[in-house]
Amino acid sequence: MSNIKKNLIAFSFLHEPAMLPEFQELYQRNPDIVGWLKVDGTRIDYPIMQNPQDAEYYLNHGFDKEENKNGLPFLDVHSRISDSDILLIHDIT
Fold first, then answer.
1. What CATH code is assigned to 3-88?
2. Is the dihedral of CA 49, 54, 59, 64 positive or negative?
3. Higher pLDDT, 9 or 46
4. What CDD domains does the record tag this protein with (predicted)?
């Protein structure tokens, strides 16, 4: 992993048994949240979502499951949280 990636991207992956206290309220609002993506020095600061029934759900839905043309970053339905997962990010600007 490059030093830039180590320094700029902070992932806070959520697992129910080890839920970080600051994410408990978000998880109660939407249990599809599986992590957080933040890139320091940018406006990138988003939840990472995963919908087990619809792999592309968060292409056009926001955190509260309302339709949103920008969507959110998400993991594929078959992915599991690990260092080697591919995070799917589309144009959310």
1. 2.40.260.10
2. negative
3. 46
4. Sortase_B
